[in-house]
Structures are given as structure tokens and as C-alpha cells.
Amino acid sequence: MAQLIRRLSSKFIRKRNLPDVVERFVEDDFGVTSAYRHGYPNQPSCFAFDPVTRLLAIGTKDGFITLYGRPGVEQRFAHEQQVAVTQIIFLHNSKQLLTVCGTISTVFLWNLVDETGHVFPFLLKSCKIPCHAGKEKICFGHLPIHSDWIYMGTTFGNIYTVNVKTCKSSNYIIYWSNAAKPLSSKKSSHNVDSAAHPGEIVGIVEPPAEPSRLLIAYSKGLMIIWNLNKKETEKVFQSRTGIKSVYWHTETKETTKRFIVSHIDGSLTEWEHEKK
Question: What percent of the chain stands above pLDDT 70?
């Protein structure tokens, strides 16, 4: 045993005395590529599910989107810029989706299926929202059913409209300063101060069977019913707790008058809206 230890130690000593090797390789001598991917996407930032195509899309902070379908169906594609994907929206009854990159205020339209019917995503068009440079970014989007217009809410509280087919923005803009004003013809019981900024857009949804109206929720607790045709606020709701999201009931005729609000403290509240 002692003899074995001496042999090993002598080899170790000789290795320590070897001269340093000068590396002659440079960066151009190597080409690293991704050969295989497995598992959940790294740094996920958002996801969406389409009940028609049964596809699940997951966006990441570095601009990648991964599509999952039936067993064996998995596709990964990316934006040209490595920017975070803040929201994914599937187009209704269509094999297309929208990706929203809030940091660059841009919406991208993707086709998911090629001419042969296989899942093969490719970019069709993109549209940059005309936000105030340096002041606001896109933070929430909503596409009503049977509509080609998507409403894009920003961190400054404004809402822009974009045509999803042409990826062109419209002149129809809902500014927070107009939306937050109480009705001039009716006294508001909430005493909303139009000079107080309501925060960023956290929810946009149309009431059931009322396509000409929108329920708009702001992060600081303000909620309004906006009339798209009259371009005015019809009703004001004010929560004392900050808001994270809103959801309208659609189950029965009774519940279609109500909507659920999730708050920053984890609580849920139910509100009622009477149709006009």
C-alpha cells in the first residue's frame, strides 16, 4: 500500500512540473450551435392557449415563443430583437397569433401553419404603436370576438387601436384624461379627480352583448364603462385597492351584469353593471 502511494505521489509531482501549454485557438475556431432542446422554456414571461387549435404558446424574456400541441408537436421561433414578450393573443378562429413586445411598443402578427398544413410559424407583419417616446409602453392588449381591431393599453393609461389584418394603427385613441372625467350630465358618487392619474391599463373587456362599450380598468383602482360610438365615459367604478385584472361573467343572464376584479393584495371583488 505504501508503495502504491509513493508511485501516485511521484506522478503527481511530475505533472506539476510540466511546462505551461500555450493555447493557439481563437474565437473564430469554434462554432457553437443548439442541437437539442428539452423542457420548459427559460425565463417565461407570458402564455396563451387557443381552444380551437389546441395550441399552447409560451413567450420568454429574450424574445422566444414556443408552441406546444399534441404529443410530438413543438415549434420554437423568435423575434429579431431579443426583447421580452409581454403578451400573446391568438386570433379567433384563425391559425394566427399576435405577440406584444412592450419595451419596443410593437405588435407582431405571425402565421402558425404553412401551405401544407404543418405547424411552421413565420412572421407576416409588425406594427409600432405611436406611443409617446420615453413616456409610455404597451402593457395590455385585448382583441374582441369577431373584430379586426385590437385595443392596446399603455403604462401611461392611454388606449390605441390597431387593425390586426393590416397591422396599421388607427386615429381612434382613448386618452386617460378623457376617460377619467366624471360624466358631465350626472353627478358621480365617487368624486373622481380628472387631474389624478389613474395608473396603467390592466384590463380591457367588452360587456356581454354590448360590443359598442368597453370596461377599462386602471392599476390604481379606477374602472369605467366607455362608449365607443359616443367617445365618452358612461359609468365610473372606484376601488380603494389597486387592480391587477378584470373578468366579465358570461355564464347566465343574471351573471352577465357582473364582473370580477382581482386586486394587488390577492383579494377578489364582484361588481354589478346594469345595461342601458
Answer: 81
